[in-house]
Amino acid sequence: MDENVYMSEVAKVNRPIPGQSLTSDPDNPAPYERPPQFTNVHEATMYLWDFVTEDSTYVALMTGISKGVPVMSITQVILFNEFQQGKWNPDLMLMLAEPLAYMLIALAERLDLDIKIDNDEEEGDIFGIEMEEKKLEQLRNSEIPQGFITKEMATEMKNLPSLLEPTVEEEVTEEEKAPAQPSLMAQPEGQ
Predict the structure, then answer these.
(1) Quick check: is 16 in a domain?
(2) Residue 37 lies in domain
(3) C-alpha to C-alpha distance for 172 and 176, rounded to whole angstroms
(4) Per-residue pLDDT tens over the stretch 74-116
(5) Which residues of 41-67 are buried (b: 16+ CB within 10 A; e: fewer)?
(6) What is the pTM of this model?
């Protein structure tokens, strides 16, 4: 291949220029350029548990799983998003993939949801790194190893809402609702 053709093809790739990170403003670094908030797996795991069991997050995650979104895809999105916000470094992010996946599986099993672990075309990959076959098989069989879900987590899971339970908005009766405002486009009354 001609060197000029090669260089023009390489130049088309949208990537940072070597050394570009050294030109960032040191007084205003991006969140992921600062020291991470979590450096301990246990503390980060408890943070993730609190995050995935927040009411709005929990309902969104379980709705996604019920619609066939793979657990490993959700895991990657959550972990990478929190990495970008400076919660942990890339090494800890990779260590948190398995605990987070088991948390999501446990929450989905509680609701008897059909769980899809991974995409068929990205079988066994998380962040481009292939998982051990034994661990992947455990995930697929929903075998949650001892210690991934603590007693406190199991207790909290019992208090989480079911997707089948009516929400607060659905429990409000018609009489309790405020009268509807007339449309601005409606014909005035008395004409």
Answers:
(1) no
(2) 30-156
(3) 6
(4) 999 999 999 999 999 999 999 999 999 999 999 998 888 998 8
(5) eeebbebbbebbbeeeebeebbebbee
(6) 0.66
